[in-house]
């Protein structure tokens, strides 16, 4: 029998995660230049359409059909095609006997993760990549990076069988996207000129939508309504808040010694990204500490990027990539079996260190693979479609040249 309460909760969580992609578009759109507001926002919105089509055709199936335990996936790396085009699934098909909500909702919930993950990458190469090449990148990166890691960790694949944990996407979403972003910066190179944010209030709107949607992102990942759901919900807000204020204080006492609104919002997003892999596995006290660690670690990563001259325009690597790495490693220290009996204790709670070791190995595999595959993928695409636009196009702006429209009329 259908669990009406749980079904309603999962519909709400799915809707919240869906809202994050428009939120990301606003966040990036406000940080970009006047000439490229629409192009960067369109890269997020187009993912909603293309990723949904891919998910319908075979994405859901290769992520969540088959597992290592039954030997019906492909070497624990990718699933099978048994559920391609949602074959055999009807609106009345329940997700599982103990989680009695329709599988359709799980399909939609996980699809929202697939939509936003490649969209995160776009902030790194704003103003430099052609729309046509991005479309090919979007499709191929999902198939060869995102889908395998989802299956390996969340679909009963190789890493899950080994004992790797990732509550809501520190590895599968943020680390893979963040290091793919760094690889894209290496490939496309630097902008002729760096630009200032065109609309900070728009960044604030995007931050608000991301923060709001993150409650569904993290709390919904429990796929139930219980004490773990509540912990994940409150941990999400706590880590974000501690990270935002820590970032503000660091910024206030370094550099130009001024507390900026963008710094406050960047710190919040860093905290949200960092708590994601640990949200349902750690205590509220640990989430506060993780928030502080997130701000310090991600702030240092951004400063390293600036020192090295890497033109990651919107700090995707420093915030999302390193946030995912830091959060995954923190899980190995702060995991608490008293919060969630599904995970062994971390090192700070009497664990033997094996969880920390496995989390470090998994995150290393993810970032190395995502980085080098992205480099190779851009090189392959570039042989058929020029990836980097000309300096003339960058000067005029991608909005007008590629899309024939502008966000604002003079």
Radius of gyration: 20 Å
How much beta, percentage-wise? under 5%
CATH superfamily: Ammonium transporter AmtB like domains
CATH topology: Ammonium transporter fold
H and E order: HHHHHHHHHHHHHH
- Report the strand count: 0
Class by SSE composition:
mainly alpha
Q: What's the shape?
A: globular
- Under CATH at level 1, the class stands as Mainly Alpha
List unreliable stretches of 5+ residues: none
Tally the structural domains.
1
Distance between the termini: 59 Å
Would you write up a description of this structure?
The protein has 410 residues and is mainly α. The protein has helices at 4-31, 37-64, 103-121, 131-154, 158-162, 170-188, 200-219, 227-252, 261-275, 284-308, 316-334, 354-384, 391-396, 398-403. It is built from 14 helices and no strands. Helix 4 (131-154) runs antiparallel to helix 6.
List the helices and strands and how they pair.
Blueprint: H1 4-31, H2 37-64, H3 103-121, H4 131-154, H5 158-162, H6 170-188, H7 200-219, H8 227-252, H9 261-275, H10 284-308, H11 316-334, H12 354-384, H13 391-396, H14 398-403
Helix pairs in contact: 1-2, 1-3, 1-7, 2-3, 2-4, 3-4, 3-6, 4-6, 4-12, 6-11, 6-12, 7-8, 7-9, 8-9, 8-10, 9-10, 9-11, 10-11, 11-12
Write a compact overview of the structure shown.
The chain is mainly alpha-helical and 410 residues long. It has helices at residues 4-31, 37-64, 103-121, 131-154, 158-162, 170-188, 200-219, 227-252, 261-275, 284-308, 316-334, 354-384, 391-396, 398-403.
């Amino acid at each position: 029998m259908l669990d009406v309460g749980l079904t309603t909760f999962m519909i709400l969580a799915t809707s919240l995660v869906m809202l994050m992609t428009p939120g990301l578009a606003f966040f990036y759109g406000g940080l970009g230049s006047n000439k490229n507001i629409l192009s960067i926002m369109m890269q997020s919105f187009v993912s909603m359409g293309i990723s949904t089509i891919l998910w319908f055709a075979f994405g859901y199936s290769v992520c969540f059909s088959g597992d290592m335990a039954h030997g019906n996936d492909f070497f624990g790396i990718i699933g099978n095609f048994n559920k391609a085009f949602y074959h055999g699934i009807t609106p009345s098909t329940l997700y599982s006997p103990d989680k009695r909500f329709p599988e359709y909702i799980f399909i939609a919930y996980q699809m929202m993760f697939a939509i936003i993950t490649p969209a995160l990458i776009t902030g790194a190469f704003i103003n430099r990549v052609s729309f046509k090449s991005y479309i090919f990148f979007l499709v191929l990166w999902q198939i060869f990076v995102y889908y395998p890691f989802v299956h390996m960790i969340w679909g009963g694949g190789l890493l899950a069988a080994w004992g790797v944990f990732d509550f809501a996407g520190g590895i599968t979403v943020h680390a893979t996207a963040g290091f793919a972003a760094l690889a894209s910066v290496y490939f496309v190179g630097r902008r002729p000129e760096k630009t200032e944010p065109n609309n900070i209030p728009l960044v604030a709107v995007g931050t608000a939508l991301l923060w709001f949607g993150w409650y569904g992102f993290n709390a919904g990942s429990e796929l139930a309504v219980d004490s773990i759901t509540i912990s994940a919900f409150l941990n999400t807000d706590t880590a974000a808040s501690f990270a935002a204020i820590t970032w503000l204080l660091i910024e206030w006492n370094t550099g130009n010694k001024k507390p900026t609104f963008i710094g406050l919002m960047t710190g919040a997003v860093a905290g949200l990204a960092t708590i994601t892999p640990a949200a349902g596995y750690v205590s509220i006290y640990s989430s506060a500490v993780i928030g502080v660690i997130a701000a310090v670690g991600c702030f240092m990563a951004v400063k390293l990027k600036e020192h090295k001259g890497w033109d990651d325009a919107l700090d995707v690597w420093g915030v999302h990539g390193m946030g995912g790495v830091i959060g995954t490693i923190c899980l190995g220290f702060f995991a608490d079996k008293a919060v969630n009996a599904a995970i062994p204790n971390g090192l700070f709670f009497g664990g033997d260190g094996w969880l920390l070791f496995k989390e470090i190995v998994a995150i290393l595999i993810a970032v190395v693979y995502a980085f080098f595959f992205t480099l190779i993928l851009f090189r392959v695409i570039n042989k058929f479609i020029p990836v980097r636009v000309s300096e003339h196009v960058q000067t005029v702006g991608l909005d007008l040249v590629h899309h024939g429209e502008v966000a604002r009329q003079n």
